[in-house]
Amino acid sequence: MNTLKIIYISFLYFFLVNDAAGQIVINGRSPVRYSSAGHKNSLSISYGNIFWVDGKNVPLSGSSYSLRSSYNPGFEDNTNHSMGITVGYERTVARRFTLRTAFSRSKLATGMRNRADLITTDRSRITQLALYSQYSLTRNINRRFQFQWLAGPELIYVKKDVLVHDYVDGEGDPKHYRQNIAILEGGIVSGLGASFQISDSFCLFSNAMVGVSLPGRGFTATSSGLGLKYMW
Predict the structure, then answer these.
(1) How many Cβ atoms are within 10 Å of 61's Cβ, its own excluded?
(2) Would you call 82 exposed, middle or buried from its count of C-beta atoms within 10 A (0-12, 13-18, 19+)?
(3) Phi, psi for 70 (deg, rounded to 5)
(4) In a 3-state reduction of DSSP, which class is residue 8?
(5) Model's pTM, two decimal places?
(6) Bridging pattern class, strands 97-107 and 79-94
């Protein structure tokens, strides 16, 4: 996780330094800032989270031997959460309409990891590839602060790799139980975004989307947190 933060900070520093000298053009006595309306492409990086409910998950009925009395039947095993870096690319196809692709891969904290009656070692990971349509809800695209509506499909690949220590189910002897499965799902999400232009080539942004994952009765929520976008 510390490595991801270092990459994120290095990316921010590199592009801010690279753009510092070129964002203002002196025209006579008054500085004139370029408009971002002519930009066609952008690269972005953000640190956000993914909340995913596995609609086809089958909960474990047993517990770790020493924690059998801690079982909480109201807790859902199918709730999973991850936090990590997402990289994206955008292409403007019309004045207020863009297409955005996003890719992320990070550790996944599964529902079993959070159960009080299980002693687990969780090495699960989630990979997400998405294609969003993005429409500006702000009529004046030259404004610094803007809102967007986003919608589109997501492809989710999950590698669940959880080792449960001293697992017992019924009257059997405690032994290690490992869940090692791969899950591939598609999702349809929609939500809102906001952006603030800090220079001719850079803006801060944040997106939040919710939707369903298919097949099954799953649910997914994706948030970009606070990200940085480089435009050209």
Answers:
(1) 8
(2) buried
(3) -90, 5
(4) helix
(5) 0.80
(6) antiparallel
For residue 144, the 8-state DSSP code is: S
H or E stretch covering 17: helix 2-19
3-state secondary structure of 113: helix
d(CA 71, CA 54): 20
Q: What is the DSSP string of 171-215?
A: TSPPEEEEEEEEEEEEEEEEEEEEEEE-SSSEEEEEEEEEEEEET
Q: What is the pLDDT of residues 138-159, one digit of tens each?
A: 989 889 999 999 999 999 999 9
In the DSSP assignment, the letter for residue 109 is: B
How many helices and strands, by DSSP H and E, does the chain display? 1, 12
Distances from the Cα of 119 to the Cαs of 70, 116, 182, in angstroms? 11, 8, 22
Length of the chain: 232
Euclidean distance between CA atoms 103 and 94, whole angstroms: 23
Backbone angles phi, psi at 89, to 5 degrees: -135, 135
User: Residue type at 192?
Assistant: L
Report pLDDT digits (tens) over 32-77. 343 455 689 999 999 999 999 998 888 888 899 999 887 665 567 8
β-pair type (24-27, 97-107): unpaired
